[in-house]
Write a structure and sequence with these properties.
Blueprint: H1 2-31, H2 41-51, H3 53-70, H4 83-107, H5 110-115
Helix pairs in contact: 1-2, 1-3, 2-3, 2-4, 3-4
Length: 122
Amino acid sequence: MRLLKEATPLAVSLAIILAVTAVLFYFKSAQHQHHLVFFYLFPTALVAMICGSVLSMVCATFATLVAAFFLYDPIYSLYVSDPRDVGELLLFAVTGLIGAKCTAELTRSPEKEVTSGHKSTT
């Protein structure tokens, strides 16, 4: 039962990334849109606010891999043929990881700072 309780946030977070992927895959296929990977920043930030930075970093990493697999040519492969797209994915990964940590720190409650051993300087 405890394992289920601990695994639920991870499962929900990854499901959110997969749902965003389905929407982005539609826009890529039907509307011929490009540079959609940055739409993953919103769900990653949402996970950071609700669950914290570690789970959000997992989501940012998962989003990078899923985007490479579904949104970049060749589709259904982790290989990305265009070097500019590789740069875009790396930029997203770095932005997602930094954003996850910053968002989690900004939404951290003051009580958690005291209990974790950090003293506030205010």
